[in-house]
Amino acid sequence: MGLLSELKKKALTVKEQMLPSTEFDAATLPWIDHSEADIAAFVKNFTPRFPLTFDLDEKLRFWQKNGYVILEKVIPQELINAYWEDVEELIEHPEKYKLMTRIDLPKFEPVQERLIKDFPKEDLKGKYVKLNDFHHLSETGKNLMTHPAIVNFLEAIFQQQVVVMQSLTFMFGSQQPTHQDFPWVTAKIPSHLAAAWIPLEDITADSGPLYYYVGSHKLPKFNFGNGILSNERSTRTPLEFADYLDKNCPAHGFEKKTLLINRGDVLIWHSALAHGGGLITNPDSTRKSYVCHYSTKKALPFHRYNLHAVPKEQEYHGVVIYEHPEFGEQENILKAEK
Ligand SMILES: O=C(O)CCC(=O)C(=O)O
């Protein structure tokens, strides 16, 4: 490390220790997170981009109180089938595609994240596989993550142009410890973040379903030793964070719920909703799912793989998706059917 960056790091460390952040910045908070948010007035004046397929007033009230919404039967089955066909093509022919993939198995340590072609093919169909940002290759993935029902809801809560931040595709449950997304999945404005959990099959209780604590977006924020975001200067670990959430959510009366939704439904959750992946109790039970994180143009004016370059923009259903900064030649290599 050069002298200048070392000095910078020291100054930041001191600043964060003296004055650690304890909350999101009120000046950039989405309107609905303000205690005085007037949902009735908002709905009266809001023009959704697409015809509404759910009761916006009811869903916004539910979101404000609970930190999530479930939109039922909004995604067409054909769109889900077409996306899964792309996933199968990828897994059958990994040598053709440039995609970073993570497999959390000890045998792949210390490099558990690699180009998909660098894993043995048989492991790609097993557990602990996370396909990172497959939407870059799959145009259907882009159409699915920007389905009009999702866009209508995100534009209502953010009141700004929505931007895709990342996506994860799973074949099996993640069994991830409890966490909130904002300390990790950071844009310039950490409160400008929401995620959609799109089941690609009906979800069963034995497959390690997602769980979440209802209302936990209002929990006082965890201090990583240097504020509410986790970074290389933090002195507290992800496991301490999980422990804080698992103890304090029940203590605040936030009920733990399991997400048993079906193909066609979608869960959208708040940046600070505590959630995790449940235990897989039947090792054969798959849990095919597509998890997409979104921010706003203001908070994420760059691709998160290259914070300094001006990104190439694409637009799907009004949502900005930045082209992959390194693998641009493979963008949309799997075309959506016309
Ligand atoms: O789907 C899961 O099990 C976990 C996904 C998740 O927690 C996340 O993407 O933040």
From TrEMBL:
<dbReference type="GO" id="GO:0016706">
    <property type="term" value="F:2-oxoglutarate-dependent dioxygenase activity"/>
</dbReference>
<dbReference type="Pfam" id="PF05721">
    <property type="entry name" value="PhyH"/>
</dbReference>
<dbReference type="InterPro" id="IPR008775">
    <property type="entry name" value="Phytyl_CoA_dOase-like"/>
</dbReference>
<dbReference type="GO" id="GO:0005506">
    <property type="term" value="F:iron ion binding"/>
</dbReference>
<protein>
    <recommendedName>
        <fullName>Phytanoyl-CoA dioxygenase</fullName>
    </recommendedName>
</protein>
